[in-house]
Amino acid sequence: MTRAPFAADPAASRGREFPEDRSGVRGPRSEFQRDRDRIIHSIAFRRLRSKTQVFIAPDGDHYRTRLTHSLEVAQIGRVIARALGLDEDLTEALCLAHDIGHPPFGHAGEDALRQATEGEGGFDHNAQALRVLMRLESPYCEHDGLNLTWELLEGLAKHNGPVAEPGWALTELNAAFPLDLSRYPSLEAQVAAVADDIAYDNHDIDDGLRAGFLALDDLLSLDFVADQWREVEKRFPNAPRERQLRELVRVQIGLMVNDVIAQTQRATRDVATIDDVRAAGRALATFSPAMEARERRLKRFMYERLYFHPEQLATAERARDVVARLYTAYAADPAALPAPWRAALPAEQPARARHIGDFIAGMTDRFAIDQYARIFGRRPEGLSNV
């Protein structure tokens, strides 16, 4: 596929925060390929395998985690990027890194951390992703962080659009390495954002059906889903129900991907450069209006039937309590922190609270449960409902 004129070009990157010695470079990789590889090789990325996607600390082996979700987002993002002539490596890197700032127990854990640190600036998983990649994940001798390209960091900071009021974490990082927060990001970042929607809209259906929280009959109350289900039954009338359901999910993903490609091609017909993308004043990689309306209906359905299911809400409340009590314990008795984190604990606020927040945010579900048991002498109950 020919590179589109408005694609991000690794040869024209705005560079990295810290200059790097290019002597002895390992392999013939582009700058964006290096970004992707640094993310994949990071400890923070590996921890995603044990962090909540939809179901908290699931006992079943077949449910998505943040890691498998990120891999599915990357697969969808690359397909869209290739069709549009965008840089696939940058798109993939953005998809792989977009959830790297999530704490244990998903949004329940984030809510607890935000509340615990409210007086010290709060917590936001999007900004935390930048904080992890730019400061906390530090495998190199020369500098803190992974020292990723400006384009990768810009895309993570703004994949949901310009940031008018950045919180403390993003403000500090932007001061050190300005990311042009007032304008739209590259199309690669926009594709990563819509690929995230496509992935979780559909694989959460798969997991919800598998867990018994969603019923097919209820799902078919959405006419556009029912239309596809009838087609699946017509094409595969003798297939087992489980295979038909997985085919439905695949069909839904394909429809959304094709819609985004067609809509973005229309939106970029008169776009000549990547600067035009950033100055467009709106996102260009989107669903069509018709598909956007369907996707919003699907999201409302999923919130009503899955995310806000009474059993899910009760489990989330128990998870929030675990994170809140861990934070309180570490703040009251720093000796409860592991030695390296205790030694680096700042003496003054707000840095002290943010340091504890960094430690908790990096935890996996499993590690948070183990730490709770170590501190309080018992394992928290009722954290897994599948």
Report on this model:
The chain has 386 residues and is mostly helical. It has a domain at 187-310. Helix content is 59%, strand content 0%. The chain has 18 helices and no strands. Helix 5 (106-116) packs across helix 15 and helix 11 (223-235) crosses helix 12. The longest helix is centred in the middle third of the chain and has 27 residues, at 241-267. The protein starts with 30 loop residues before the first helix and ends in a 10-residue tail after the last helix.
Topology, element by element:
Blueprint: H1 31-40, H2 43-47, H3 66-84, H4 88-97, H5 106-116, H6 125-136, H7 150-158, H8 168-176, H9 187-211, H10 216-219, H11 223-235, H12 241-267, H13 274-278, H14 289-307, H15 310-332, H16 339-343, H17 351-361, H18 365-376
GO molecular function: dGTPase activity
Domain HD: 66-201
InterPro entries: dGTPase, dGTPase-like, dNTPase_2, HD/PDEase_dom, HD_domain, PHydrolase_assoc_dom
Helix content: 55-70%
Shape descriptor reads globular
Element order, helices and strands? HHHHHHHHHHHHHHHHHH
Report how far apart the termini are.
43 Å
Rg, Cα atoms, Å: 22 Å
Structural class: mainly alpha
Strand count, sense and barrel status of the largest sheet are: none
- What would the average pLDDT be, to the nearest integer? 96
| Count of alpha and pi helical runs | 18
Report the uncertain regions. Answer: none
**Percent of residues in β-strands:** under 5%
Query: Got a strand count?
Result: 0
Region (Disordered): 1-33
Family: Belongs to the dGTPase family. Type 2 subfamily.
Biased composition (Basic and acidic residues): 14-33
Organism: Pelagerythrobacter aerophilus
